[in-house]
Amino acid sequence: MRHIDYYFTVLSPWAYLAGTRLEEIAGKHGVNVTYKPMDIMAIFERTGGVKPAERHASRMEYRMQELLRWSKELEIDLNPNPAFWPTNPAPASYAIIAAQKAGGGDLGALVHGLMRACWAEEKDIAQDDVIGDQLEAHGFSRGLTMSGLMEGADTYAANTDAAVKAGVFGSPFYITEDDARFWGQDRLHLLDAHLGAR
Question: Are 96 and 110 contacting, i.e. CB atoms less than 8 angstroms apart?
Fold first, then answer.
């Protein structure tokens, strides 16, 4: 089956602004998606990126303008300075990994719901109750916040290693089975076109 590896961090406002367009594109073309939450700070360190806190002020000012522009363009609510950012991305990432393994719910909606909780609802997505609410809302067991923590940690690390090997350097990042790579929510229309041309 045709396939997309979706590398992302739950802390990324750009992944949040992607909304559910990836899922819509995948459904349109009959493509399977594997969700691969990763450690974005490790990705920056290993691929020559710069952590947000270490970027020049001009870059961060431009980032802020772009976030507001894209939020308006896409009609997606976004607080560019959320109350709980940055937070620890690991608990939410582990829950996504556990949910993907468990199946039975809407994984794409879960991923978007967690990011929306951070970027539009002023919630701390490192907290078990916030994660549990999102799991339950999208058809998964709240118990996934606690089960499979060791496996989640191992998979999270493996996803990060795989991302570096695959050429990933930011979030969101989409890679097709023919190694076509697309970085950023503003490249989703190009991913759509690529899948449609094959």
Answer: yes
Residue with tokens 């690991």: 90
Q: Residue 143's CB: how many other CB atoms inside 10 A?
A: 13
Angle at the Cα of 188 (from 182 to 191), degrees rounded to 5? 60
Q: Report the range of poorest mean pLDDT among 1-5, 130-134, 165-169, 192-196.
A: 1-5
Q: Are 14 and 30 in contact (CB under 8 A)?
A: no
Q: How far, in Å, CA of 20 to CA of 108, rounded?
A: 7
The domains located in the chain, with CATH, are 3-197 (3.40.30.10)
Residue with tokens 């961090």: 9
How far apart, in whole angstroms, are the C-alpha atoms of residue 52 and residue 30?
Answer: 36
Structure tokens at 112: 């978007």
Q: What is the DSSP string of 2-23?
A: -EEEEEE-TT-HHHHHTTTHHH
21 within 8 A of 184, measured Cβ to Cβ: no
**CB of 11 within 8 A of CB of 51?**
no
Cβ neighbours of residue 154 closer than 8 Å, sequence gap 6 or more: none
pTM of the full structure: 0.96
